[in-house]
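Q: Second attempt. The first request was missing the SMILES, so the protein and zinc ion are both included now.
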Amino acid sequence: MMLVDTHAHLFLPEFTTDLDQVMERAKVSGVEHIFLPNIDENTVGPMLELENRYRDFCHAMIGLHPCSVGENPEVSLEIMASWLGKRTFSGIGEIGLDYHRDLTYRDQQILAFETQLDWAKRYDVPVSIHSRDAIPDCIRLVRKKQDGSLRGVFHCFSGSLQQALEINSLGFFLGIGGVITFKNSGLDQVLAEIPLDSMVLETDAPYLAPVPFRGKRNESGYLSLICDKISSLRQVESLEVAAITSKNALHLFKSSLNNA
Ligand SMILES: [Zn+2]
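A: Got both inputs this time. The predicted holo structure:
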């Protein structure tokens, strides 16, 4: 079984004490590649260190997370832009909109999101989109920027069937994570209607651990639980779910893998 974790923050302090074991468990469970979405200027160092330690296995993205966007995101954005000028990244992430906590910096979030979507086009890399309580605006902005060259994932998708179809029609994948294993997520009915061709798998570690680890620290080795859940929902072998979603992920991120 070959799996690809398209979204994991394994560079966060939650993993400092047992990182080697976390990586070992991921490999044993079939994970062959892990994509690391950045958060802000403070996480770039630890992320690049981790990528360097697990070469050809972990692949860094660069970007400013919407929850790290404050009144003046320009300085942080400039730091991200300067990194983009220095080396190749596997994608632009984690970017997007988060209207869940508060709406104070909504305009700044939109500006940062649009700026970073432009980077993805300029550098020809995929994006990893965070859309919490903000899927309609994220879809609207992606549509506005889509000229046929934008590609990426709506990470941790938990929207409606209508939204899933719109995202697919924009050429984007749905990132499916631990939420699919939660009772009453409603995501199971949505995913029953969506082809496997439009899904990639992710953990979002250390967050959103799948059942039976819900509420605990998540790690890439739990990706197989998400794969198994989709397999039982769709009555398709786990091996097939793994093969199709991994093929999708490798195709999406292929430019970074060729450079590796
Ligand atoms: Zn994330």
